[in-house]
Design goal:
binds iron/sulfur cluster, about 450 residues, Rossmann fold, alpha/beta, 17 helices, 5-stranded mixed beta sheet, 3 domains, Ubiquitin-like (UB roll), binds FE2/S2 (inorganic) cluster, single chain, about 35% helix
Length: about 450
């Protein structure tokens, strides 16, 4: 039986085992994109490259047999640099937005397309939770925010931007109790000094994480600089503070810090005349505090963000197939939300291209393409959507469809750079994936194949 070393650790494997299988025995992760357990290696992506220090060769771990005396390095600088280069090449022809342009622009990073989809579906509770979770004071912001998100909304290039600010202002009252962890469940008592937008957002973010939170403000009225904004009715501000109070945050107006706390956050220092920026500052202060105590953030900040940039008119029309056409059961807010093009990716959390791009610091601009590939959405009427611009041509979907015995299945057509996945005889996507759809979507390493109504977060 061959005996080799991986990252200095000895391992013995069955004759014929691959380097990837040997690494799995040691629970060492090697990234893969085109590998499918039990199938012949595709060896098309090369992201699994490792170095054999004994021979000085770089090898694809998924297809290279483990042999006696190998000294495999899975994460040395040379390997990391090769993987970065591979990812840069893959990304140079990638057409996809991990995050929607509107969410990127929002300083508080409201998950706008998800919010809009929930409004469109009539899921009032869920929409209200997203607005509250991300904005802390969504109703206040609906009165005072200049809505930079709307200026970046792609729908504005077709007719008019989504009225995002109005929609999140209306989606503010949720039954928070069932969404929040028990007060103090994290075991931290935190004091926040200042009750302006930054202080409120910081307190809210800490409460969502399970801290027990007390807000102190020396002024007799809570709200800090928010009280001075003429366009903000005081009853709206009071109602928002009441929501946070009902969520378990304790407020002490006209009071200096008293009592003993595990941590004190002086968020008044973080106020900003742009209220949504103050909210973002407050959330960042809370995340920084939680990080010091090794608590994961409420919402992971985007790791890598593929960006298409400006879309052509015909591409906007492609995206418009995401808009719901049957609005008969929609409320007014639902009708408005249904205009959203859903610019964000359907698989932002499970996409391995994104995960590895973040891990290895990939940069799509490293190999700029002469002309960007056209954005396309196929499978408009079925349950599965195929976006050729996100396909890395790994061939897994073709192999899976073949293995499960799809009568039509999928196939590659074209040559070289122009190779693409298609359904034979020009049939619709659902006809090619009658039984293999779930397997294909789950194993597709990117957002190229996804279920239309996937809500992955
Ligand atoms: S169309 Fe929807 S997802 Fe796209 S930018 Fe506008 S609000 Fe955001
Ligand atoms: S669509 Fe098929 S070939 Fe393209 S990335 Fe997904 S699994 Fe691979
Ligand atoms: S397929 Fe992956 S990298 Fe591409 S837009 Fe979607 S999440 Fe981002
Ligand atoms: S070449 Fe090994 S996973 Fe793609």
């Amino acid at each position: 039986m061959p005996e080799l070393k991986i990252n200095g650790v000895a391992v013995e494997v069955e004759e014929g085992a691959t380097v990837l299988e040997a690494a799995e025995l040691l629970q060492i992760e090697i990234p893969t994109l085109c590998h499918l357990k039990g199938a012949a290696p595709q060896t098309s992506c090369m992201i699994c490259v490792v170095k054999d220090a004994a021979s000085g060769r770089m090898l694809p771990a998924c297809s290279s047999k483990a042999t006696d005396g190998m000294q495999i390095e899975t994460e040395c600088a040379e390997v990391q640099s090769a993987r970065r280069d591979i990812l840069n090449l893959l990304l140079s022809e990638h057409v996809g937005d991990c995050e929607a342009p509107c969410s990127r622009i929002c300083p508080a990073h409201l998950d706008i397309p998800h919010l809009l989809r929930e409004i469109e579906r009539g899921n009032v509770e869920s929409a209200a939770w997203i607005a509250r979770r991300d904005l802390a004071i969504p109703r206040v912001l609906s009165h005072v925010c200049p809505a930079p998100c709307e200026k970046g909304c792609r729908r504005g290039e077709m007719d008019s931007a989504l009225t995002i600010r109005t929609l999140h202002g209306a989606a503010h009252s949720a039954d928070l109790a069932k969404r929040l962890p028990p007060d103090g469940s994290l075991g931290f008592k935190v004091a926040v000094i200042g009750s302006g937008a930054a202080g409120l957002a910081c307190a809210w973010q800490l409460r969502v994480s399970g801290c027990s939170v007390s807000v102190f403000d020396e002024a007799p009225l809570l709200g800090g600089p928010l009280r001075e904004i003429a366009s903000l009715p005081s009853e709206v501000l009071d109602a928002e503070i009441d929501v946070l109070r009902a969520a378990g945050i304790s407020f002490k107006a006209g009071a200096s810090l008293v009592g003993s706390f595990d941590c004190v956050v002086d968020s008044a220092a973080e106020e900003h005349k742009l209220v949504v920026k103050a909210v973002a500052n407050g959330k960042a202060a809370a995340d920084a505090m939680l990080q010091r105590f090794a608590v994961p953030p409420v919402v992971e900040s985007p790791s890598f963000d593929s960006r298409i940039g400006k879309l052509r008119e015909s591409e906007l029309e492609q995206l418009a197939v995401n808009c719901t056409s049957d609005l008969s059961n929609c409320s007014d807010a639902g009708r408005e939300a249904a205009r959203c093009l859903h610019c964000d990716c359907r698989k932002p959390a499970s996409c391995r291209l994104r995960k590895y791009a973040a891990r290895y610091g990939a940069d799509a601009a490293e190999y700029p393409a002469d002309e960007r590939v056209h954005l396309q959405l196929l499978g408009k009427d079925g349950s599965v959507v195929f976006e050729p611009g996100k396909c890395i041509k790994c061939g897994l979907c073709i192999e899976i469809a073949r293995r499960v015995g799809e009568s039509l299945g999928l196939a590659f057509v074209g040559r070289g750079y122009n190779t693409r996945v298609t359904v034979p005889f020009g049939e619709e996507l659902d006809a090619g994936l009658r039984v293999a759809a779930k397997d294909c979507v789950e194993n597709c390493p990117t957002g190229a194949l996804a279920f239309r109504n996937a809500e992955e977060r």
